[in-house]
Design goal:
four-stranded antiparallel β-sheet; binds adenosine-3',5'-cyclic-monophosphate
Amino acid sequence: MVQRTLSILKPDATDRNITGEINSMIEAAGFRIVAQKRILITLDQARKFYEVHKERPFYGDLCAFLSSAPSVVQVLEKENAVDDYRTLMGTTNPASAEEGTIRKKFALSIDKNSVHGSDAPENAAIEIRFFFSETEIVG
Ligand code: CMP
């Protein structure tokens, strides 16, 4: 089934000017980028976006990092997009990421791990709505 997932190219990726290289990996893996914009996520938006992690010790640093520099937010479309994008990203901690994954190639640390992807279809719908209106998504 064709699915959509929410992807964020995080501040460590915009900072190193590697968003094009990451997009090349995304497209080579068969995803269509059906919406995309470069934005500065505010601290309030970051707190809301990552609310599920609010009890975790890394929540404060995570939100500060996401709002520290521009991000590229995007909607990716593909069969089985949610799981396939998580496979393409690699593990959250790049120390254990597999060869050929985005995080293996580009991530600097578990915090500066270059990309975010939705973890389930129902969360993808919520996360896409958080950043995009329906008219901004052109399949
Ligand atoms: P992301 O997939 O964007 O989801 C939450 C982020 O929290 C995660 O990527 C990591 O960058 C960050 N993070 C920092 N420490 C941890 C941790 N111990 N476990 C999970 N995520 C962490």
